[in-house]
Amino acid sequence: MESETGFVPKVTENIAMDSAEKRLNELGYKQELRREMTMFKTLAISFSTMTLFTGITPLYGSSLQYAGPASLVWGWVVVCFFTWFVGIAMAEICSSFPTTGSLYFWAAHLAGPKWGPFSSWCCAWLETIGLIAGIGTQAYAGSQTLQSIILLSTGTNKGGGYFAPKWLFLCMYIGLTVIWAALNTFALEVIAFIDIISIWWQVIGGAVIVIMLPLVALTTQSASYVFTNFELAPNTTGISSKPYAVILSFLVSQYSLYGYDAAAHLTEETKGADKNGPIAILGSLAIISVFGWAYILALTFSIQDFAYLYDPNNETAGAFVPAQILYDAFHGRYHNSTGAIVLLFVIWGSFFFGGLSITTSAARVVYALSRDNGVPFSFLWRKLHPRHKVPTNAVWLCAAICILLGLPILKVNVVFTAITSICTIGWVGGYAVPIFARMVMPEKNFKAGPFYLGKARRPICLVAFVWICYTCCVFLLPTLYPITWDTFNYAPVALGVGLGLIMVWWVLDARKWFKGPVRNIDAQNGKV
Fold first, then answer.
1. Do the Cβ atoms of 512 and 437 come closer than 8 Å?
2. How many helices (H) and strands (E) does the chain have?
3. Which residues contact 260 (CB under 8 A, 6 or more apart)?
């Protein structure tokens, strides 16, 4: 079949060649990264990037406060339903294009020769922004959890415990980022091994929390409270509109249910990626859908006093609602905070593994974009470690930018809101470009992989695209009223400036030389 670029790629047959490597050569790329990842290892990294706790835990308190437990609990189900459309659409594309560049490579080829360069440019930068901000969300939330662990370990807020000040919080943020970058300079087998630990850590740890927490709590909320209670908190949030409150209560679910594209970033390093890539995407989405809802239910059933969760004079200083729920449960029964500290450490481990995996994904995207000359000083960021064959320079570039994003922690109280919004809009927004291109492209131009939707692809892609657009819009909304410097959502400004500069760069210069993914193999003879 003739490709949209106008020539028929031919690759020398090799019986021993991996099917995904053969497809990679057909697309014009030589195999440079080591293809040693199994399906389970790829699933582990994909699941670790999504993570069971890291999306739900930091936003649980605010989402619960907007409209009460019912909106939060059922919001997860609604968001899961629409997210599956996105996951299925991406799994089909991944099966056809098993390349490290993933989303932006998909966008270039699916949009065709006319719109391909612009589509890949937009997609690449959205994804890069989202992934690097994603490292920041994990570092911030991980530092927040560590802050609560230190506070409870030293006597609680009421007992004179130590509540880490902003400068120490920033040091923890930077420390986590540097550790993740250092670990990512080793061979991918090290990261894969750690991520296998991660998937068991989260599955076993998640099961322990989901089962133990309601059993330990002296009292549990009724099913009617959890599943049907709807209440606004206008005095705290400033929001009295029920539809608006429900929209904001869904944010925790929308923030948590993405990241499954990590499997696509590793397809050049995965055996049989045209089959195992889609399995990893859908498998990680299935696990997080079930365990995430169970985690939300466990927290909500175990609430002892709703109003006390947000009291700045409570044991956790009103700073971290899940930590207070854990403390109330264990202190109420055992009169100490040891159990809460242990489970908070399990949750902190999830942030650690999640940040490590997102750093892996972010570096792969920067490497792939640099390989195609789409980043300033690309020659630096596309270099691989001579022995480990990992993009070390790209890893440390991502870490440095992430640290810069965290510096306002010293002066601004809404840093996490802004970083979360930037992360979600960039990351999820990057999904929209290839999905839209897949929806409108002529079917004759698409070379299907083992996972193929057939006639169902257009309605599935349509629902997925509309849902992504909605998700990006709601993360631009103010989350607290009245709007002041302390409550203002800075994401629209930051994204507007950042994406505006990127578009100006495109119009003035990049459109003249950026052609999207650059082949590094002679398509006529399969040679470099």
1. no
2. 21, 0
3. 46, 49, 50, 87, 90, 280, 281, 282, 284, 285
State how far the Cα of 405 lies from the Cα of 409, in Å rounded to an integer.
9
Count of alpha carbons within 13 angstroms of residue 433, beta-carbon side:
28
Q: Give 384's DSSP letter.
A: P
Answer whether 357's CB lies under 8 Å from 262's CB: yes
| Reported confidence tier of residue 101, pLDDT bands at 50, 70, 90 | low
Q: What is the DSSP letter of 302?
A: T
- Taking residue 215's Cβ as centre, other Cβ atoms within 10 Å add up to 11
Could you count the other beta carbons within 10 Å of the beta carbon of residue 223? Answer: 10
- How far apart (Å, rounded) are the C-alpha atoms in residues 20 and 375? 27
Question: What is the tens place of the pLDDT at every residue in 285-334?
Answer: 888 898 899 999 999 999 999 989 999 999 998 889 999 999 999 999 99
Give the pair of three-digit tokens for residue 265.
Answer: 């970033």
Q: Give strand pairing partners of 527.
A: 522
Q: How far apart are CA 39 and CA 243, in angstroms?
A: 42
Look up the pTM and report it: 0.85
Query: Which of 43-52, 67-76, 501-510 has the largest mean confidence?
Result: 67-76
116: alpha, beta or left, given left = phi > 0 and alpha = psi -120 to 50? alpha
Neighbours of 154 (CB within 10 A): 13
Of 133, 143, 134, the closest CA to residue 165 belongs to 143
Residue 357 and residue 284 in contact, taking contact as beta carbons nearer than 8 Å: no
CA–CA gap between residue 312 and residue 220 (Å, rounded):
23
The pair of three-digit structure tokens given for residue 156, joined into one six-digit string: 């609680």
| CB 384, CB 168: distance < 8 Å | no
Nearest to 286 by CA among 87, 102, 54: 87
For residue 184, the model assigns a pLDDT of: 87
Query: How far does CA 17 lie from the centroid of its chain?
Result: 32
Contacts of 140 (CB under 8 A, 6+ apart): 58, 173, 406, 409, 415, 416, 419
Distance, CA of 308 to CA of 294 (rounded, Å) = 23
Closest CA to 441 of 107, 96, 26, 105: 107
Specify the length of the chain in residues. 528
Placement of tokens 């949750």 in the chain: 347
DSSP 160: T
Q: Which two tokens stand for residue 234?
A: 């206008």
Q: How far apart are CA 466 and CA 419, in angstroms?
A: 23
> Tokens representing 336?
């100490």
**In this structure, which amino acid lies at residue 365?**
V
Tell me the C-alpha distance between 359 and 398, whole Å. Answer: 7
199 falls in which pLDDT band (50, 70, 90)?
confident
Per-residue confidence (pLDDT) for residue 524, from 0 to 100: 40
Instruction: Name the residue type at position 301.
Output: F
Q: Which residue has the tokens 């990057």?
A: 430
Which of 169, 174, 120 shows the shortest CA–CA distance to 149? 169
